[in-house]
Amino acid sequence: MSGVGARLRSIPTWQVTLFVALVALGFLIAAQLRSETPRVEYTSQERTPLIQTALSLQSEQKALQAQILDLRDRITTAETSSEGSDALVKQLNDALFQARLAAGLTALEGNGLVIQLQDAPQAAQAAGGEDLLVTGLDVRTVVEELWLAGAEAVAVNDERVVATTAILDIGGSLLVNSAYLAPPYQVKAVGPADMSAQLASSASWISFVASRAGPNGIQVSIAQPADLVVPAYAGTVTIRYAQPPASPAPSANP
Amino acid sequence: MRNPRSQIALAVVALLLGFLVVAQVRSQSSGTGLEQLSAQDLTLLVANLNTRNDQLRTQVADLGQQLASIDASQANGETSAGQLRDDLVRTRIWSGIDPAQGQGLRVVVRGPATVGVVEDLLNELRNAGAEAISIAGVRVVPATIAGGTPGALSVDNSLLGDPFEVDAIGNTATITGTLTRIGGLVAQELATNPGLAIEVTPADQVLVPGTTRDLVPHDAKPRL
Known about the structure:
Chain A has helices spanning 2-9, 13-35, 47-80, 87-103, 136-148, 195-200, 203-212; strands at residues 108-110, 112-118, 153-156, 159-160, 167-170, 173-176, 179-181, 185-190, 219-223, 228-230. With 254 residues, chain A is α+β, with helices and mostly antiparallel strands. In chain A, strands 4-3-8-2-9 form a five-stranded antiparallel beta sheet, with helices on one face. A three-stranded antiparallel beta sheet of chain A has the order 5-6-7, with helices on one face. A two-stranded antiparallel sheet of chain A has the order 1-10. Among the domains of chain B are: 35-78; 99-208, Protein of unknown function DUF881 (Alpha-Beta Plaits, 2-Layer Sandwich). Chain B is 48% helix and 19% strand. Chain B is built from six helices and nine strands. In chain B, the strands form two sheets. Chain B has a five-stranded antiparallel beta sheet, covered by helices on one side.
């Protein structure tokens, strides 16, 4: 043993340094090759200004969403601190608070599940690779499974799913609430404590995972954080055509 | 390490290492996904983002006006009950709690419709800007899910007959055009589902009921 130790000590420092550097080099080359995107990359010239425009519009969208959330907060604060805080105003404020909760205009926190969907690593190399890419249908299926498991609020990459939410394919990516989302997709849900157990025992969820995930499919992973926040909907709540009926039918909810 | 050859070797390896670290960091951080879209998809995306941003700008302006109106009322010592009531009516209709009426369309589906047909139809109506939707008298809210097999479909545990109707309130021309355009959803569903018939009829007045679901969360808590 002492012979081996003496031999190791006799190796020049620069050789050890070079060895370590070469190991790191090999690791990085492997990581770089693995991270090569599995999707087709287009290279035509006319795409560059389109990408720049899309990036600029996305950035503008984020800023507008932040403004909307801020204005809603300020409106809520102004309404609840109304000078004429008589019984009617208080009653209306309470009802509005409940309506905003129901509409998805308030962020919710609690027991949660996060399901991540990611393209199969081998999507680029495989022929007919579409089955290896996450589609809008996959995301819609996961959202529905979470509702079935009892979720009270769901968001896809932080876009809250509300009554008007459409989930559409665009190229190999998605539009959710008309916001552009690229994979991986994280579907967050908050709800009852048994949501995870409900999901695990759902025949349709088991069937989805069996048919879409696995060695030859997309990657599906689940996390169960102790406390999860699903953000508020940050889009438009304008109604231009829907009005209360002339002689309103009795509402099912108070 | 006095050997010049070893110094050169180490320098080359260090250079490569630096280059790969930068490339790796850049590939991890710049994944917008846009580089994978075709020019056609990018054009569609830019159009979508433009439309969406226009809507968001309008919403910002509306909310700004609403806030200014509340502030003005409070400055005059008036009650904000009127604004609260307007906000409440709008929010309850938009969320699906209350019934709604307005221009839109009726879709009648006959034949062996699948769950996929129902879900595609709802998704397309939402994408076209429908403000309120119902299927066979059931108001569509976020957790509304279709289930079952052709001939025994259900929505929120309410059995769909054959035929069944989907009513939607929104800009009649826009939502009708989106569904019935060449290569649009109706054409696609008819091409892939033999025996299926889908009839789309614009309507001046459509009545959509309120939901029977309780939409207020009970386990999750509001984060204020």
